[in-house]
Amino acid sequence: MPRVLLVLSAADSLELADGSAHPTGFWAEEVAVAHQVLTSAGVDIDIATPGGVRPTVDPISLDERGGVDPEEGKKHGAYLDSIRTSLDTPLALDDVDGLSYDGIFLPGGHAPMADLASDATLGRLLDGAEAGGSVVGALCHGVAALLSANGTDGAFTFAGRRLTAFSDEEERQGGLGDATPYFIEAKLRERGATVTPGAPWSNTVVVDGRLVTGQNPQSSRETAERFVELLPR
Predict the structure, then answer these.
(1) What is the DSSP letter of 202?
(2) Cα–Cα 20 to 30 A to 115, which of 11, 48, 52, 209?
């Protein structure tokens, strides 16, 4: 049975460009759908966060405030409740043995921008996964977490790789706009990645070797399914 580390942010707020704090957390659909797809495929999942802190769901990801259909929000909320024990007792990233996993999956919500994007422990795990041939999956703002990974020479581990992420245009249309502390698409390009976003709010997934990235919540299911396809059997 393949083993996957589902890494969630421990942040419940994000410092905006003007220095104010914006409440945030993980995006309900992205975690619920990924967990469901992986579990249905027979994958053994461990959830981890920085410091083993219980992750926070972004409340707007469950209702109309986040552009979410109320019935869909209820469905995702119910699924999260069904895995509440795992969410409430995550592993601490510092205690994780990366060699024990066949893949690492990184869902979004704005929270990863606050901590995972600069988490040195996650960076080492991702660098080891990339070097060891494990599968790496990242979705929406979770792609920002890839920024934590640098090789021994200090170069961005995923420089030159093809990927997508929550696009700058999507951030302007339905995200934080100019209040965002940084634009993920632009930051990844700056670090040397080849970012190829699709149309705003389209189901867009990019697979480059054993790296799978999805653009937004609309890409949740396909990102998880393509990730599963690359896991060992």
Answers:
(1) -
(2) 209
d(CA 58, CA 46): 21
The token pair that represents 111 in the structure block? 């929270």
Predicted confidence (pLDDT) per residue in 142-160, tens digit? 999 999 999 888 899 999 9
Percent of the chain at pLDDT exceeding 70: 100
Can you tell me the distance from the alpha carbon of 89 to that of 66, in angstroms, rounded to the nearest whole number? 27
Q: How many CA atoms lie within 13 A of 88 on its CB side?
A: 6
Full 3-state SS string of 43-96: CEEEEEEHHHCCCCECHHHHCHHHCCCHHHHHHHHHHHHHCHHHHHCCEEHHHC
Of 196, 24, 43, which is closest to residue 113 (Cα–Cα)? 24
pLDDT at 233: 85
Total tally of structural domains belonging to the chain = 1
Token duo for residue 73: 């929000």
Nearest 5°: phi and psi at 200? -55, 135
One-letter amino acid for residue 83 of the chain: I
Domain CATH number, residue 151: 3.40.50.880
The pLDDT tens digits of the residues spanning 43-97 come to 999 999 999 999 999 999 999 998 899 899 999 999 999 999 999 999 999 999 9
